[in-house]
Every structure is written in C-alpha cells, then in structure tokens.
C-alpha cells in the first residue's frame, strides 16, 4: 500500500492544521480478563509450526521465555519449536496492560488451557476449523504442575535472549521503513502542569538547513499544559541543529512557577495532620487519646525517576486505503498497553480503532512509565503532517523532563508497645497521585477520582503483621510535577517505612528483629520467607564493627498485593572517617507461587534489590526552575556496578497458583538496607536518600 498523502504541501514550510472537537474526558484504559478462548488466538499451528503471539509486553522481565516455556510444555514440544511474535492489535484480541506484575497471573492459565485444547485437537487429526477451549482444571495441565528444585531448569525457553544478544532489531528505535524521516517535538523547559506554548522562533534559520523537512504547529501536540512545536528532518543527527537554529522563545505561565520547597510543603505530613484526619482511611480502629506512644517516627522519601536504559521511541506511518476499510495508520512502539495507545489515537484522529494497528516492540525498561500515549502521538501527528513515516526518539533529557515520576511521600508512624507486642499502630502518609496520574487526568477528573482514593498511593501501607488496633490513613496531593506508576507503586516507600518502624519497636522491646516479626504474624508464607532469608544469611552471625568500620545487619519482609511474599537480609559497612555506606551482601527469599521460569524470577528479584539500594542510598530527582532539573544520568545518581553487592536469591518451592514476581522484592529490600544502616550506626535516618555527608553529621552528633 502507498502512503496516504494528507497534505499536498509537505516541504520545509510551517504546517498549521485545525483540530476537531474532542471530548474533555480522557480515554480510559480497559482491563479485560482474558479467557482460554481468547488465548486460542495467541497460539497458532500451521504446517507443523507453532506461533505464539505474546499477550504481554516484553520489557526485560522475560515473560516471553516464561510463556514460551509454558506453551511448549503443554504442547509437548521443545521450546525452540514455539516461534515468538510480539503482540499487535491486529493479531490478538484486547488484553490487559502489562502492569502490576500480573502477566503470569493473568495469562498462564488461559494459555495453558488453550495449548492443551490445541494439543488434543491435533492428536485427533483436526488441523482446520474453529476450536472451543476446554475448561481444564489447573491440576490436569502439564505446564502448571508443581516443580521441585527450582534452582535448576531443563530445556529453558530462550524467549528473545538470542535475538537480544545478537543485536537483532527488537526495539521501537530499530524500526526501519522506506522513506523514513525523523521528528522531535520541542517543549518549554518547565513542567507540563504549567501552561506553556511556543511564542516565537526563527523559521528562516531552520529552513536553511537542507535536512529540514518541516516545522509543524498542531494543537494535537498538546500534552496537558504543554503545547509543543514539531520539527521533521531527513536524518536524526540534523534534529539538534534544527532545534538550535529555531531558537524557540516560550510563553510560560509564570504565575505557577515553583521550586523544590513547594513540593515539600504540599506533602508535609505534619502540616496535613494538624488539619485533622486525612482524606482516606484504610484502617479506622479507635486509638488512645493520650500521647503515650512508644514510637513516633517521621520519614520522608523523595521524588524519583524511572530512569530506563532506553528513552522511549515510536514510528508512525499513514497508509493509503481507497476503500477506507483497511488499516489507515500503523504505529511501532515500546508500550505497556498497545490497545490503550490505539484507543487514544483513534480518539485524537477520529478513526475507527480497527483501522489503527499498534505493533508492540521490546521495551528497554518500562516500570509503569510506558503506559501513556506520548511519543506515539507525537510521531503520528508529524507523520500526518509530512505525508511520510516519521520516527520520534526522545532524548535522555526529554525522558526525565516529560515522563512522570515516582511521587515523593511524607510519613509519620506512631506505635505503642506493651507486654512484648505492638498494641496500637498509626501510620499517616501524604503523597501524590499514582494510578490517578496528573499526567493523564485533568484537575476536575482527578478531584472526582479522589473521592475513591488512589489505591496505588496506598499500596503496601497496610502492614502484614497482627496488631489489634490500627489506624492507617493517607492523602494524595496534586503536585506541580507529574507523578504516576513506578515499580511497585506505593509499595516500595510504604513498606520501607513500615519495616523501619517495626525495627524501632523491636529495639524498644529489646527483641531480636526476626523473632519480633515472627511474633507478630500468623501468615505461614510470610513466616516462611522470613525464616528462609535469615537462615541463608546465617542471621545470628552478626558482622562485628572495628576501629575503622561500622557494620550492621537488617531484616525486613512483606506481602505484595496480598499474593506474593518476600523477605530480605542486608549487611552494610560504614566507614567511620568518610561516612561512606556500602551494602556488602543481600539475601532474599521469594515466594510467588508456582515458578514457571526460575531464571527470570531471580533476575527480576535481583533488579528489585538494586532498585531498593538506590532508593535508600542514591536516588533523588532534582527539581528547580519549575521543572525537573536532571538532563542526564550525571544529574541523577543511580547505583553503579561497583555499588552492587553479591545478591543471593532463594526461590520457595510452591504449589500455589503463580503470582507476580516483577515488583515483589520491593517490599523487603529497602527496609532490610535501612535497618542494617540503623544497626551499624545507631541512627534511624528519616530522610532519604542517605548520603555520606548525612552519615558523618549523624556520627559527629552521637560523638
């Protein structure tokens, strides 16, 4: 098919187009539950060849290997005989987004039933016609039988690993098309929460560059309050030159300017508590009115970025269709929700959704950040404007400035310890929105949604321990920087605070931190991972300090989304003279039910532990001049290879249904590191991240 020519003049001039009226209500993601009949559309058999269209995005979690191995086991063939294809809206029916570590939980059983149905049909000689999936009990499916010794794998499914290490084109940035052009959308250097638009630019200078194809004004280049200006070039290297030549001047609503102090003020938990009860309560038990609290702990966790290795990219191509029935638009994107992308583009361009194909590409790090339609819309607008396929690749600076971030949070925990147990617990926290992200929800809609409460903010705030009287409450405040889903949502920061407070209570009771946790739980699976992590670390053999180095050990545990369990033990060393903190070992016990792909689960757990290390010791996204101030990794400290200790991951053999693994260890790793630092220094660091200067100051105060 030929490319559709939407505009006759697609040269190097300024293209200004009008936008048809759109609904004020944003497109809402749909979250269907997949059935085995749906899964029959994922697995195909043709002339002895099996093809699996993945229902999930592959973003490094090795879901391709897990589902490929499951399909092969159920079909009774080697994994290499199951050919993998990344999903496309044209080849599979609508599925849930790849979020919440739920891919195996959502797709394993339907796929296993579909493969069993296909296997039986082929065994009976049926090679054509329509199949109806059988409702086979999990206990009768080959691929979902409990395995023992999950430390070893036989005939492991390769997934996309071979293609990845041999440099085959997998990512959106690898897309190559005849006549491909390259685009960028320039935006004011402020948060998209602030109204901004291009005011003036030097078009003549831009057009003097022979690689300049177009400068595009279009109302569809609006992302919340930020209206962008598009440029299209023959080569990607020309984009920087054209941007510099344009010298865009921006009109910015200075009345909403902000600095870091404004963010700190909006989420300050003590300010909110002085006003009375917080907006949402997860537990509402009555608490004592006197002030005889054993523990009164304030902790603050800063803004953090996704920091994926791959900045997002998308390629859009408009296609000729004389009958107006076939595909009119095709988009290649690294997205966690390809059907939501299709829905947004259908709304924006007044197209039937069936006439848009979104082809998913491998994602070089998603973590919840690839759920909105951003670069995909930019590429589509520019491609329509110039009548040619256009690729838009965000720079690292754009990834920091234009994506949404993990919200900061401010916590206060009060607890009463009597008779060797916690009898009363009060956890109050203030944060910003996660599931109700302001990057997609206007103020009025977020205000309505807030009546229900953002469950992403609350995730992990409910403690996994048995305490008779509890009050757990939170509020979410819209911030001038956009926040949203980040690995584990609120579970990482919230469980860090819970586990820190648990350790302080144990210290007050003069109890061993492991025994203290075991005394406060009746959950056998939580107790199991706590005991396993402690046993692997040889918990009683605490590291000893010496004249130059303080040493400490900490433990923490938790339950992710009520279904997956993790516990961790950390050992740290602190140099007395420099305050330098080093995590020297991490042990983690992990229970996510039946493990389909052990190497993948271990890899995900290790990734979680590194994120936890970053949360406690490194990561804080700087804010200045009404926006994110980081433009590169030089501005945003991350754990480096030399910071990573030996990681000992121990998977629990389980016959329970498979659950999530991609985010589970977030509930344990950060708490273990923070508690080890407390054990080494005798100081509970209440504001993260903990830097060497903070440690030196605390040690000098102690002295």
From TrEMBL:
Pfam families hit by this protein: MoCoBD_1, MoCoBD_2
Domain of life: Bacteria
SMART domains: Ald_Xan_dh_C (SM01008)
SUPFAM superfamilies: CO dehydrogenase molybdoprotein N-domain-like (SSF54665), Molybdenum cofactor-binding domain (SSF56003)
Domain Aldehyde oxidase/xanthine dehydrogenase a/b hammerhead: 166-254
Gene3D superfamilies tied to this protein: Aldehyde oxidase/xanthine dehydrogenase, a/b hammerhead, Aldehyde oxidase/xanthine dehydrogenase, molybdopterin binding domain
Record GO terms (molecular function): oxidoreductase activity
InterPro entries attached to this UniProt entry: Ald_Oxase/Xan_DH_a/b, Ald_Oxase/Xan_DH_a/b_sf, AldOxase/xan_DH_MoCoBD1, AldOxase/xan_DH_MoCoBD2, AldOxase/xan_DH_Mopterin-bd_sf, N-heterocyclic_Hydroxylase, TAT_signal
Database matches in PANTHER family: ALDEHYDE DEHYDROGENASE, BLL3820 PROTEIN
Name of this protein: Isoquinoline 1-oxidoreductase
Organism name: Acidovorax kalamii
């Amino acid at each position: 098919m030929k490319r559709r020519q939407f505009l006759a003049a697609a040269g190097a001039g300024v293209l200004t187009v009008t936008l048809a009226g759109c609904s004020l209500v944003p497109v809402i993601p749909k979250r269907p539950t997949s059935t085995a009949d749906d899964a029959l559309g994922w697995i195909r058999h043709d002339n002895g060849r099996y093809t699996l269209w993945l229902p999930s995005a592959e973003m490094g979690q090795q879901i391709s290997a897990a589902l490929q191995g499951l399909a092969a086991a159920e079909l009774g063939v080697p994994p290499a005989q199951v050919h993998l294809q990344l999903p496309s809206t044209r080849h599979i029916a609508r599925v849930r987004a790849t979020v919440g570590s739920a891919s195996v939980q959502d797709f394993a059983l339907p796929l296993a039933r579909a493969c069993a149905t296909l296997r039986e049909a082929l065994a009976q000689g049926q090679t054509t016609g329509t199949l109806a999936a059988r409702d086979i009990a999990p206990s009768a499916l080959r691929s979902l039988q409990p395995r023992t010794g999950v430390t070893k794998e036989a005939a492991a499914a390769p997934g996309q690993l071979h293609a990845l290490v041999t440099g085959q084109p997998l990512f959106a940035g690898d897309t190559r098309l005849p006549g491909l052009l390259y685009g960028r959308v320039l935006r004011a250097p402020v948060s998209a929460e602030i109204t901004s638009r291009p005011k003036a630019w030097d078009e003549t200078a831009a057009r003097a560059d022979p690689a300049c194809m177009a400068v595009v004004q279009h109302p569809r280049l609006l992302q919340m309050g930020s209206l962008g200006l598009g440029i299209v070039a023959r080569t990607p290297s020309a984009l920087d030159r054209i941007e510099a030549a344009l010298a865009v001047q921006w009109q910015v609503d200075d009345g909403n300017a902000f600095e870091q102090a404004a963010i700190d003020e909006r989420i300050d938990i003590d300010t909110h508590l002085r006003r009375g009860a917080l907006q949402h309560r997860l537990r509402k038990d009555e608490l004592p009115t006197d002030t005889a609290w054993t523990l009164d702990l304030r902790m603050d966790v800063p803004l953090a970025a996704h920091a994926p290795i791959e900045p997002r990219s998308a390629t859009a191509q408009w296609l000729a269709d004389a009958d107006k029935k076939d595909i009119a638009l095709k988009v290649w994107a690294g997205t966690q929700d390809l059907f939501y992308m299709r829905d947004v583009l259908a709304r924006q361009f007044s197209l039937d959704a069936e006439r848009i194909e979104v082809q998913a590409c491998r994602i070089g790090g998603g973590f919840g950040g690839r759920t909105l339609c951003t670069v995909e819309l930019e590429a589509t607008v520019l491609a329509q404007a110039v009548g040619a396929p256009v690729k838009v690749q965000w720079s690292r600076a754009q990834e920091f400035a234009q994506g949404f971030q993990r919200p900061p949070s401010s916590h206060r925990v009060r607890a009463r310890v009597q008779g060797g147990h916690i009898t009363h617990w009060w956890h109050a926290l203030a944060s910003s929105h996660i599931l109700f992200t302001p990057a997609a929800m206007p103020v009025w809609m977020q205000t309505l949604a807030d009546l229900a409460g953002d469950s992403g903010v609350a995730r992990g705030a409910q403690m996994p321990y048995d305490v008779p009287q509890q009050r757990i409450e939170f509020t979410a405040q819209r911030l001038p920087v956009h926040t949203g889903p980040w690995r584990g949502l609120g579970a990482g920061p919230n469980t860090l605070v819970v586990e820190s407070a648990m350790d302080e209570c144990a210290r007050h009771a003069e109890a061993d931190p492991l025994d203290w946790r075991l005394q406060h739980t009746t959950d056998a699976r939580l107790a199991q991972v706590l005991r396993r992590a402690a046993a692997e670390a040889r918990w009683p053999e605490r590291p000893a300090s010496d004249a130059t180095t303080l040493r400490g050990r900490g433990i923490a545990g938790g339950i992710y989304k009520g279904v997956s369990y993790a516990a961790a033990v950390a050992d740290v060393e602190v140099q007395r003279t420099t305050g330098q903190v080093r995590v020297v070992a991490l042990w983690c016990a992990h229970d996510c039910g039946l493990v389909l792909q052990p190497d993948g689960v271990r890899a995900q757990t290790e990734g979680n532990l590194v994120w936890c290390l970053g949360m406690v010791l490194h990561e804080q996204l700087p804010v200045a001049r009404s926006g994110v101030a980081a433009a590169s990794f030089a501005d945003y400290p991350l754990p480096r290879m030399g910071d990573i200790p030996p990681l000992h991951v121990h998977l629990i053999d389980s016959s329970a249904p498979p659950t999530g693994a991609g985010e589970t260890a977030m509930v344990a790793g950060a708490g273990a590191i923070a508690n080890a630092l407390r054990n080494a220094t005798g100081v509970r660091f209440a504001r993260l991240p903990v830097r060497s200067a903070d440690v030196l100051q605390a040690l000098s105060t102690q002295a």
